[in-house]
Specification:
4 helices; 5-stranded mixed β-sheet
Length: about 80
Amino acid sequence: MPMLTPKDQSANGLAVIFAPWTAAPEALAFATEAGARFVRFGAFDFIAIVEPQSEHYASQALERGAWFVADPVALAACLKPFASK
């Protein structure tokens, strides 16, 4: 089960990453149906940033089709484009 979740899920919420071809409405529905409050989309529409409502949220999101669940701050650092000089 690919999870890169922080120990304290309430600190920054969670980034729930779905397949790149997942449309924004589907990502929103899948992420919240697993038991979370939607905060915003990530860098792409298939990434939903949520505040989980239970400690088992990550496994529930994976059962609903998420590819993985991660700390949104760490994920943002990975997706930040390289600055040109």
